[in-house]
TrEMBL record:
Keywords for this protein: Hydrolase, Membrane, Protease, Transmembrane, Transmembrane helix
Compositionally biased region (Low complexity): 49-79
MF annotations from Gene Ontology: peptidase activity
Annotated protein name in UniProt: S1C family serine protease
Residue ranges with Pro residues bias: 23-41, 95-126
Ranges that cross the membrane: 177-200
InterPro entries: Chloro_Bact_Ser_Proteases, PDZ, PDZ_sf, Peptidase_S1_PA, Peptidase_S1C
Signal peptide span: none
Domain PDZ: 473-526
Gene3D superfamilies: 2.30.42.10, 2.40.10.120
SUPFAM superfamilies the UniProt entry points to: PDZ domain-like (SSF50156), Trypsin-like serine proteases (SSF50494)
PANTHER family recorded: PEPTIDASE S12 (PTHR43343), PROTEASE DO-LIKE 8, CHLOROPLASTIC (PTHR43343:SF3)
Region listing for Disordered, in residue ranges: 1-173, 462-483
Length: 542
């Protein structure tokens, strides 16, 4: 088994040259790696194939380069460096190992398995004697040493990426591309997310929201409902805009007949004066010029007429004597010039004595009304509008409200809102006055023929001692004189209804027509007595 093998000291195959070895000259560098070429046969040796070599033996190592006829350079004459081990006389490495001058296989640090199953390039086959690498070009930069120090106990360093010979590492370029892609993806995702968020915020969700709603119903309403009453009465209600004498005002009225007569309040048309203007606007928006037919401040009523308007619908008149407390009512008007405004309420009281006006100071503009009280909201601009019952019939003319800021009754002059205390002139009184204004241009007032002491603070209405300008307080041959009334008598009842002041007595009397008979209860020197009289007549203001 040992035939043909050296018997001397074994070669140290893995020893390296010492650090003191002089550097090799360029011509001594091993050639670049390439295909292994069998060395030429030496003289005296058999041609290839004549001396059978054992199968599988490694090729022999060439001891020296072939001789040439050219003289060797002077530097080549120097003795070559001596290896650290004895040369092998057979030139055959044992067991197929590398020769003494063959470089040792490169030692690589263990690296972790690449993530994601990245394929690892196949290992580089070891190079043996006679397979020398190509000399490296000095311009390619520093070369990676073949020998690396391996510390089995240290943490492995980051492995160098596998590349083909001559190619630059691709790791940084790939990481840069991945970073750019991640940034672009983040920006795109942010834009898409922002758009979706804005859409959701404006729309309230991705899907369209549909809310439940009642189906369409018939627009018809019961005739006695508020909607039915308003639908029936609104076409007959008008809005008046009055100006003149540096004043202007807004009020409401309603159509009396097809001839164009409209009933409203005296204080609504008062700003027009002799040469003012009155504009009438119907519920449908049509506008016409109005003219004053007649007015009366004592009743606070006036009649205006429009011409050239067709298709007028008169509003039916009811009977205020049939009204009972608690009956439902509807008020229609233009509060603060908001035309066609509808409010509803009930009759709160009847025969409520009120006085309104009095801005002139002489009492000529004071109105005395035995009013219907309602809690239907009435505001400035409602004056002159109709107060209708459940059958859309007029039972009163809205005239005054109780103002919370002043504590007194007032109409347009009291610019405060409704507090649920509204007053309307009974339509029975309004009808009589309107007929007189249309027929004669003037209204008549019922009178008893006495002058009252308005400063009397006791209970009842006291007849004065003297009349105006020193005239008798009881008109001679007047209704009271004929009934036996004397100066100083205190009237406490009218037709069995108690009166507490002079204003209330006037209101009760004006609630009747001239010629009506009244029964008065009075006190004279502590004695109570009853008298009957027939109401006289006095002309109203023009």
């Amino acid at each position: 088994m040992d035939d043909g093998k050296p018997t001397g000291a074994k070669a140290k195959w893995w020893s390296r040259p010492s650090a003191e070895q002089p550097p090799q000259r360029p011509e001594q560098l091993p050639p670049a790696p390439g295909p292994v070429v069998p060395p030429p046969a030496r003289a005296g040796e058999d041609e290839p194939g004549t001396a059978a070599a054992p199968a599988g033996d490694a090729p022999s190592v060439q001891d020296a380069p072939p001789a040439t006829d050219e003289p060797a350079p002077a530097a080549a004459e120097a003795a070559p460096p001596r290896p650290l081990h004895e040369p092998d006389e057979y030139g055959t490495p044992p067991y197929g190992g590398p020769g003494p001058w063959a470089p040792a296989p490169p030692v690589q640090r263990p690296v972790p398995t690449p993530a994601g199953g990245t394929p690892v390039p196949p290992p580089v086959p070891p190079q043996y004697a006679g397979h020398q690498p190509h000399p490296q070009d000095a311009s390619t930069g520093p070369q990676t040493p073949q020998w690396l120090q391996y510390d089995p106990w240290g943490s492995p360093a980051a492995p160098a990426p596998f590349t083909h010979p001559g190619e630059p590492p691709r790791g940084k370029r790939r990481r840069g591309a991945l970073l750019v892609g991640a940034v672009v993806l983040a920006l795109a995702s942010g834009a898409v997310g922002g758009g979706v968020g804005a859409y959701v915020e404006r729309r309230g969700g991705i899907t369209q929201v549909e809310l439940d709603q009642a189906p369409r119903e018939s627009r018809d309403r019961a005739p006695d409902s508020v909607a039915g009453i308003a639908a029936s009465a609104l076409p007959s209600v008008v809005t008046l805009h009055v100006s003149g004498g540096g004043e202007q005002g807004t009020g409401t009225g309603f159509v009396l007949d097809r001839r164009g007569h409209i009933l409203t309040n005296h204080h609504v048309v008062a700003p027009a004066g002799p040469g003012g203007e009155i504009s009438v606007t119907f519920s449908g928006g049509e506008t016409a010029r109005g003219t004053l037919v007649g007015k009366d401040s004592g009743y606070d009523l006036a009649v205006v007429k429009v011409s050239g308007v067709s298709g007028l619908t008169p509003l039916p008149l009811g009977n205020s004597d049939n009204v009972r407390v608690g009956d439902p009512v509807v008020a229609i008007g233009a509060p603060f010039d908001l035309q066609n405004t509808v409010t509803s309420g009930i009759i709160s009281a009847k025969e409520r004595p009120i006085t309104a006006g009095g801005e002139k100071g002489d009492g000529s503009d004071v109105s005395y009304v035995d009013a219907l009280q309602t809690d239907a909201p009435i505001n400035p601009g409602n004056s002159g509008g109709p107060l209708v019952d459940a059958k859309a019939r007029v039972i009163g003319i809205n005239s005054a409200i109780r103002a919370a800021d002043t504590g007194g009754g007032g109409g347009e002059g009291a610019q405060s809102g409704s507090i649920g205390l509204g007053f309307a002139i009974p339509i029975n009184q309004g009808k009589r006055v309107a007929e007189e204004l249309i027929n004669t241009g003037r209204a008549t007032h019922p009178v008893i023929g006495v002058s009252l002491d308005m400063k009397y603070t006791g209970d009842g209405a006291r007849v004065g001692e003297k009349g105006k300008d020193g005239t008798p307080s009881v008109t001679p041959d007047g209704p009271s004189a004929k009934a036996g009334v004397r100066p100083g008598d205190v009237i406490t009842e009218v037709d069995g209804r108690r009166v507490h002041s002079g204003e209330e007595l006037i209101v009760k009397i004006r609630a009747h027509r001239p010629g009506d008979r009244l029964k008065l209860t009075l006190t004279r020197s502590g004695d109570e007595r009853t008298v009957t009289l027939t109401l006289g007549s006095a002309g109203g203001d023009d």
